[in-house]
Amino acid sequence: MTLPPGTKAAGAAVKIGFITAEGGSAVSLPEVREGAQAAAAYANDYLGGIGGRPIQLVVCKSQEDAASARTCANDMVEQKVIAVGTGTTGFGDTLVPIIAGAKIPYVTGTATAGSEFATDGVFSWTGAFPATLGTMASYAKAKGYKRVALFVTDVPAAITGANALGKPVFQKSGVDLDVISIPRGAADATSQVTSAIAKKPDALALVGDATHCTSVFKAFQAVGATQPKFVIQPCVSKAVDDAAPGALDGSVLFTPSDTDSDDTEAKLYRTVMAKYTPKTQTDGYAVTGYQTVLGLARALKGISGDVTPASVTSTLKAAKNIAMPAGHGLTFSCDGSAIPSLKALCSASSVEATLKGTKATDVKTVDAASLFAAG
Q: Which residues cross the membrane (predicted)?
């Protein structure tokens, strides 16, 4: 794909904060930052940046613990950025009170923490973890499953979300959900997998990073688990496939993004990444940083006058039917209507696909909004 001619940004830079999980002992995802930086470079070269001015990404690397998350949040306030983006983090509940409390808009492609779902001044382009859980529940209901075992990384946002949001939508779909926590960075999950499979689940679902997926898939293979597998985007990595050969094949992928297909947005993603950060693997988590930054640039396309936290917030609240970067035709609107009980989520939809190795096939979109309706 050739990038069409566009508008180059000029003038004084607009400072956008970007907090990324990088350098920690358990979780380090440099590809998320690289995806964000590629999106910013593309927006600056082709989309006129933000308000015609170039985006300057102010990066802070969090080690995915409360102390470094707090340090990054405070650093963003001190740097006087006009918005803060995150690719993915388990510490949104630490970041949001500081950033939103300073009246700086907080944006993400994929919200995971409770405070990222409903806080004023927070915007998640995708339905993120709630929509993923909702589409998993819809799929399980359609297949006639009665019990699903969900293996989740033991971080507060994931465990709380799985229990508080996952269990009700699965129950609404007539499916029991067992939530099993796996310690971060655990190399062997055999004991947890063994006890979960004793309850005879109809399907096995994984929520976590590539390290988590690797240990759980290896345990599945060790105990001979034959149930259908549900996975999220970070599982779909060469590292997982190499460590547990063939484990991903046939799994159902639930994700807010499409990076593999011939869809225009997927091709744009691959083209931008190849141009600006050619050494970055385009599977796994890189797309979350790309979605966050390019989504912000698209949603702020019409902004005029002084670009301030207040003008960014009001422009985002008015954003309607914005094309989701790498979203396979999904759009987002940040007026609080997608899932009214979770007003920070700008979409209730997800992408569903079947994996052949690490390649997504039979890609389609699913709307889970009805599962979150009152009553």
A: none
